[in-house]
Amino acid sequence: MSITQQYLHDAHRARQLGEPVPPAPGTHELRVLRVWWERRRCRAVLAGRPARRGPRLLPRRRRSRGPRALD
What is the number of other CB atoms lying within 10 angstroms of the CB of residue 33? Predict the structure, then answer.
């Protein structure tokens, strides 16, 4: 049974029993990765190692450069 089929089965069962539907697969992955990287950085600092930046999980917003002069 795939993860999608299991989710649909659990959601159907929860609706029949009047319980809240479980979150969809992959809903909290970014949050879990951020917490994991923050804990890793904290442990590195406490151990006296340099803390490196984690991977960028979301693309950075582009800053506008203001009005551009037309040539």
Answer: 13
